[in-house]
Amino acid sequence: MTRLTARFWIDAYLTRLSGKLIPAYVVAHGDDDAGSIVIKLNRLDGQATLYHRTFDLTEDTRRWTILEQGAEAEVDASIMRQRSRDPDLWVIEVEDRAGRHLLDQSGLE
């Protein structure tokens, strides 16, 4: 199976969010080809959730799971720790009071 580049997936994700009028920004630009991606969902109330993609070997599937959740400052600290270990990491911030991130939609796994 051919893998999509990180940049291609991010461009498609940002386009999908834009189509739903959900603001999103590239906070950290990782490796265009193989960089890992984390999505920070900012609910604009001081709380945030950080998602990362995991691979389930038993089911041969990829899914987005919560890496960190809580006060935005704590989530930001987690992102900084991740970036210190992985300079190729992409960080995308989605801002939505309703908590929409679209990661549960088909095609984004």
What is the fourth-level CATH superfamily of the domain at 26-95? Protein of unknown function (DUF1491)
- Globally, the shape reads globular
Neighbour order of strands in the largest sheet: 1-5-2-3-4
Element order: H for helix, E for strand:
HEEEEHE
- Which segments are poorly predicted (pLDDT under 50) over 5 or more consecutive residues? none
- Share of residues in helices: 25-40%
Average pLDDT = 93
CATH class of the domain at 26-95: Alpha Beta
Main sheet overview:
5 strands, mixed
Termini separation: 14 Å
Structural class: alpha+beta
Number of H/I helices: 2
Give the name of the CATH architecture of the domain at 26-95.
3-Layer(aba) Sandwich
User: How many beta-strand segments?
Assistant: 5
CA-based gyration radius: 13 Å
> What name does CATH use for the topology of the domain at 26-95?
hypothetical protein tt1805
Report the β-strand fraction as a percent range: 25-35%
